């Protein structure tokens, strides 16, 4: 049931007002996976009060905004991405008043707040789906194939494994591109459009500064729901246009939402944004989501998936910047999130490579997203016991032969969702008083916020320094860049007054010092007239 505030008052004002230059163009935005961030009530699950209490930490870290993963009323079949009521806070995470308090506190600290919106599907406990008549109007039901309809309507597979269709007791089938508890909505129904526009306005009235649109590429399916023709379809996501993803029709929805966001912002003197979680096969197709009349940002997953090789990274950077520049949008860089293996582990070079990748990302033109815990250098937890896992994909296919422990979407996403270590020598490391919903490693004491604070060699202090420099130096953030000459295996590019040098090799490289060293992910030494860049390192130089 939709909740109401216990003490309603005018929505808080975010930092800055009016149209002006878009704050999102060079913002650094920190993703809070709410259930794993900070637990205020000792039940082992992070919540909104816990997140609110830690907001000063994020202010001191130097980020501009916070993105909160879903905290809506939900049976939690997929970590809250199965929403039963978009206007209510799940008791696991608090109340609507707690959400209001968090938004106000964030704004008082100069932080903006982005929340998730999940428009491709709802929970099967949503009132619409619980009503058989409404369900068949507002979700995608089809008759089955075969003599008695015993076969699914087509060959589509769930992203989580297994068929994307479930048969009902009435004999028909409903589509769920994710878990069976997450039925796909029918966006051909105007009532679905009207409901989500009302949901956006509800949260804008509460003061949020934008929305991260989950599965922004998925709401529209190809006419006739055609077969794909082969299996292992999840591997095709982001590699080609599929009949259930990245259909051109989604852009009409995003244009409508952009008009809503701009109109609301103009009326209330605020800049509110939409962020696309969109998997597209090319940078050019991804750029369609951030055309001037669509959303403001789109995560650059091609950069996230790029191998740690100089030529590959340069190619992705060039292609990404060219595509977004062609539509007047900033590029939005990301290395980790709650659905993929942490980049400390995924890139294959340990903490040294992860630190270098972060400095590279923060030096590139545009906006950047950080995933909670990456500033601590947290690795992926790869040895969680089966009985502790909660990722629905794990139970629908992640344990099958050929499943990869580094793919993130093959059932092993729990490894990047282990609760954060804040302080102390033993689990739960200050996360809360009642343990943690996923077990934390016994060797994380040296990785806590407490242990790293004040240590100039720590990853946390590297992030703090990098973000402070990014804020202080006008050449970083939005703007232009130019490649500079560099040896094989090394990337070098200039921004206004800054040169970034990245050694992707596993050994030292000597270069003429380009200027005064500002920051490095690993110690840079001198050898005669040369600067020695360690392997797997990145450095910023004032020029």
Automatic annotation (TrEMBL):
Domain Glycosyl hydrolase family 13 catalytic, chain residue ranges per copy: 31-413
Keyword Hydrolase in annotation: yes
SMART domains, sorted: Aamy
GO molecular function annotation: alpha-amylase activity
GO biological process assignments: oligosaccharide catabolic process
N-terminal signal peptide: none
Protein known as: Alpha-glucosidase
A UniProt-annotated Pfam family: Alpha-amylase
Chain segments carrying region Disordered: 1-20
InterPro entries named in the record: GH (IPR017853), GH13_cat_dom (IPR006047), O16G_dom_2 (IPR045857)
Gene3D superfamilies: Glycosidases, Oligo-1,6-glucosidase, Domain 2
Keyword presence, Hydrolase: yes
Keywords noted in UniProt: Hydrolase
Organism: Streptomyces nigrescens
Entry's family note: Belongs to the glycosyl hydrolase 13 family.
SUPFAM superfamilies, A to Z: (Trans)glycosidases (SSF51445)
Domain of life: Bacteria
